[in-house]
Amino acid sequence: MISILKNFPVVIHQLFFLFSQLLILYLYGISYSGSLAYIGAVSTFLAILICLRWDIEILVSKSQTLSENLHDASLTIVFMTIIVVFLNVILDNLIPNHIILSALAIAIHESLVSILFVQKKIYIYSFFRTLPAIALVFFAFLGLGPEIIWPASFFVSVFFLIIYFKNLFIKAFLNSSMQRVKDIKILNKINAAITATTFSFFSALFIIIINYYYGDDYVGLWANTIRIFNSVLIFLLAASLPFALNMLRDKNFAFEKVMIFFYLWLLLLPLIIISFLVVSNFGVSIFSIFKSLDFEITNTNLSIIFLIGTAISFIGSTQGLYQAINKNIILFLMIIITALFGLFVLLNSTLTFKILIEIFLLLAMIIVSMVLAHLIYHLIYKIK
User: Fold this and answer.
1) What is the rounded CA–CA span in Å between residue 286 and residue 183?
2) At what angle do helices 186-214 and 216-229 cross, to 10 degrees?
3) pLDDT tens for residues 316-327?
4) What are the distances in angstroms from CA 39 to CA 15, 100, 210, 269?
5) pLDDT digits (tens, 9 = 90+) for 175-220
6) Do residues 319 and 56 make contact, with C-beta atoms less than 8 angstroms apart?
7) DSSP H helical segments within 92-145, as ranges?
8) Who contacts 203 (Cβ-Cβ below 8 Å, separation ≥6)?
9) Which residues contact 68 (CB under 8 A, 6 or more apart)?
10) For the CA atoms of the chain, what is the radius of gyration?
11) What span, in angstroms and rounded, lies between the C-alpha atoms of 323 and 142?
12) Residue 362 to residues 29, 216, 304, 357, Cα–Cα distance (Å)
């Protein structure tokens, strides 16, 4: 944790994103903010499918050079984008173009900033992590809609990243050949991507369902509750997780990697408890500082959303670990089982907003319990 605090620039971009989103909430209202959250959630889900988790592979794997990683990641993104566009045409443009463009920009952006982190260029890494947040506010001030400012903000950062990595791109593709292209193990990445995409969809599904039943206002409530009350946790997790994933590269046994992961979350546990007590007692008062609501909400509602947000952060952080211990299929099955159970419960329930988020909390606790049981098993039996 000391090394994380010393590398404070890694964390700064999270503050910029938090402030930019809250500023947009304050200036343009909860409906605009909710629409932005919906686009962000769906495009992030699609971005994972497009890049097949090369952003994580770059952090945790030492089997290839960075130029080789860049070569394979670039061609993978191009290939998967073509497939997504082709399928979308067949499905009569089911997915809006701005979401596909956003996903493409995020996929490229995440892969390139991962290279910066591995190179230990922390200040440059932080700058390019921060740039989309700054661009987001700038485009919002111009009066543009959420469907424009979200993809545009990431494309600005991608543009400068490509310029920055010009020489690495040249090196990556200078020795490219058909044999090199054939050697790209896309199928091996699909397993990890399916798990990550399934989780991302599971996470985005909360927002999709809320949007379907209650509209952008309640999506804005959901997204901004997590931003406000989970911000410190997200802030520290985003700063520490890349370091933890990078440490996994040097461990040979699965139980050693699990130990690093548990150590990280034990350090975060006191913060989670304190944050929960704050939102349970002062949640509505704190939220109203940023924006008053036209509908009634309670501290209990906000506390439930906070716990779900914490569970989402926990499960999301396990994806890199499961990829590192080659157990993606286990996480995938746990997510699928939980999602199917949740679908059954939703179809057999009368949904008020309170009941809906209580069901979401139940699902979140089920999958957290299964993941904890599986990882503790690795520790007890010291699985190699």
Assistant:
1) 54
2) 120
3) 888 878 877 878
4) 21, 10, 13, 31
5) 766 666 666 666 666 766 676 677 777 778 889 889 888 888 899 9
6) yes
7) 97-118, 122-141
8) 41, 45, 312, 315, 316
9) 172
10) 20
11) 41
12) 30, 23, 10, 9
Q: Are 336 and 296 in contact (CB under 8 A)?
A: no
Contact 53, 166 (CB under 8 A): no
Question: Which residue ranges make up each domain of the chain?
Answer: 2-380
Per-residue DSSP letter, 349 = S
Q: What is the pTM of this model?
A: 0.80
Average the pLDDT over 329-344 and give the result: 87
Q: In degrees, to the nearest 5, what angle opens at C-alpha 174 toward C-alphas 172 and 175?
A: 85
What CA–CA distances, in Å, run from 134 to 137, 141, 157, 308?
Answer: 5, 11, 10, 28
Cβ-contact 137, 112 below 8 angstroms: no
Rounded Cα distance, 188 and 8, in Å: 35
CA 204 to chain centre: 10
Quote the tokens at residue 8: 């404070």
Burial class (CB in 10 A: 0-12, 13-18, 19+), 61: middle
Question: What are the structure tokens assigned to 284, written together?
Answer: 């509505």
Q: What percent of the chain is modeled with pLDDT above 90?
A: 40
Q: Kindly state the tokens that stand for 202.
A: 């599971």
- Tell me the one-letter amino acid at 219: V
Of 369, 305, 300, the closest CA to residue 337 belongs to 369
The number of CA neighbours under 13 Å toward the Cβ of 110 is 25
Crossing angle for the helix pair 66-90 and 9-51, nearest 10 degrees? 50
Gap between the Cα atoms of 58 and 53, Å rounded:
9
Return the amino acid letter for 35: S
Placement of tokens 């900033």 in the chain: 113
CB 131 within 8 A of CB 160: yes
- Alpha helices of 215-350 — where are they, by DSSP H? 216-229, 231-248, 254-290, 299-324, 328-347
185 contacts: CB under 8 Å, gap ≥ 6? none
